[in-house]
C-alpha cells in the first residue's frame, strides 16, 4: 500500500475534527467495555469511504458511543471510563454513552482484557 493511500485512509477517519478510529480504540480499551455495539438499524455508526465504524457517531456538539458492557461493572463506572478515555479526543463535545448490551455472565470468559489498563473512578468524575 502506498503512502498516499494510507494518508487518504487516515484522513478519511477524521469526522468534524474527531478521529473516529482513535475513538474506537480508546473505547475498546476501557476495562468495563466488551466492544462497541451498533449493529441494530438506526444505531450509531460513522460511514467512511469503503467502511463503517459501528457504535460511534460524531456531530458538531456530541460524540455518541454505544457499547456492550462487561457483566458486573456498574453502568456509571463504564460511562466514566469512556468519558475519561475520550476527554482528550473530543474535548469540546458532550460525550453520550449508551450501554446497549451486556456480556453473557454464563458464557465462557474470553480474555479480551489484554492491554486494558484499569481506570480509577474518582468522586469528581461521577
Question: Short description, anyone?
Answer:
The protein contains three helices and eight strands, in the order αββαβββββαβ. The protein is α+β, with helices and mostly antiparallel strands and 126 residues long.
Number of alpha- plus pi-helical segments: 3
Alpha-beta classification = alpha+beta
- Which consecutive residue ranges, at least 5 long each, have pLDDT under 50? 1-8, 117-121
Give the strand tally: 8
Report the end-to-end length measured between terminal Cα atoms: 45 Å
Taking all Cα atoms into account, the compactness measure Rg is 15 Å
Give the CATH topology of the domain at 18-105: Alpha-Beta Plaits
Protein name: Asp23/Gls24 family envelope stress response protein
Structural account:
There is one protein chain. The strands form 3 sheets. Strands 3, 6, 7 and 8 form a 4-stranded mixed β-sheet that branches. By secondary structure, the chain is α+β, with helices and mostly antiparallel strands. The chain has a domain of 88 residues: 2-Layer Sandwich (Alpha-Beta Plaits), CATH 3.30.70.
Task: Provide the descriptors you would attach to this structure in a database record.
alpha+beta, 8 strands, Asp23/Gls24 family envelope stress response protein, disordered N terminus, 126 residues, Alpha-Beta Plaits, single chain, two-stranded antiparallel sheet
What's the topology here?
Layout: H1 3-12, E1 14-15, E2 18-19, H2 20-28, E3 33-36, E4 45-48, E5 51-54, E6 56-58, E7 62-69, H3 75-86, E8 94-102
Parallel strand pairs: 7-8
Antiparallel strand pairs: 1-2, 3-7, 4-5, 6-7
